[in-house]
């Protein structure tokens, strides 16, 4: 009988959110979106696989995991892991800020040593940074969002994970996976 691969991406997504909320200050939705993007694209650059399984779209304020964004916007939570408390402008009724509160403890056993190392480095590097200030970093020339979004012509387009291969390390100095190795893994492992 063939071994069956069980994806833990959803659990990793929820627990990565808990981790970043607990390990950084002022982790509202924009900051969380950017941290998840950096986690996924840096891990993809190193291994050819994302951590959370999210796909990102190029929006004007940066890369956004659109499925997660829809979940937050419509349900006010990230599964049963994180509550989202929305503050709205009393006049326009538009969301001003979404505060994130973990509902359960972080489960580090879900993550590999490499994933935890990337998460730790991101949390340490961006611990005090506000989401708006992180935009400058996520919009840097050479990062995948910039390559797709350009000057706006790529708005709302998917950001291919493979663009991470041509970018500099976000944190750390780990080598990029060889593109031939990635192609082999994609063909053989799916």
Describe this structure in words.
This protein has one domain (9-189). Helix 2 packs across helix 4 (113-125) and helix 2 (29-47) runs parallel beside helix 5 (131-138). By secondary structure, it is an alpha+beta fold. The radius of gyration is 17 Å and the shape is globular. Helices cover 43% and strands 14% of the residues. The chain has a 3-stranded antiparallel β-sheet. Strands 3-4-5 form a 3-stranded antiparallel β-sheet.
Average pLDDT taken over every residue: 88
Largest sheet: 3 strands, antiparallel
How many domain units? Answer: 1
Helix content: 40-55%
Widest beta sheet: strand line-up: 2-1-6
State the end-to-end distance: 19 Å
Q: C-alpha Rg, in Å? A: 17 Å
Structural class: alpha+beta
Helical stretch tally: 7
Shape: globular
Q: Give the strand tally.
A: 6
Poorly predicted tracts of residues: none
């Amino acid at each position: 009988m063939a071994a069956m691969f069980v994806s833990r991406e959803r659990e990793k997504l929820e627990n990565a959110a808990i981790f970043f909320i607990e390990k950084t200050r002022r982790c509202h939705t924009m900051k969380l979106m950017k941290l998840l993007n950096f986690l996924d694209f840096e891990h993809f650059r190193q291994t050819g696989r994302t951590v959370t399984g999210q796909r990102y779209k190029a929006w004007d304020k940066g890369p956004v995991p659109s499925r997660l964004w829809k979940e937050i916007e419509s349900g006010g939570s990230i599964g049963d892991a994180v509550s989202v408390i929305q503050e709205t402008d009393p006049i326009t009724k538009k969301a001003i800020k979404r505060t994130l509160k973990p509902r359960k403890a972080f489960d580090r056993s879900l993550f590999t040593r490499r994933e935890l190392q990337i998460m730790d480095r991101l949390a340490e590097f961006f611990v005090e940074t506000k989401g708006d200030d992180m935009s400058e970093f996520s919009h840097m020339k050479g990062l995948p969002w910039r390559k797709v979004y350009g000057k706006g012509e790529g708005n709302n387009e998917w950001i291919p994970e493979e663009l991470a291969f041509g970018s500099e390390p976000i944190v750390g100095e780990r080598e990029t996976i060889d593109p031939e190795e990635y192609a082999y893994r994609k063909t053989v492992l799916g």
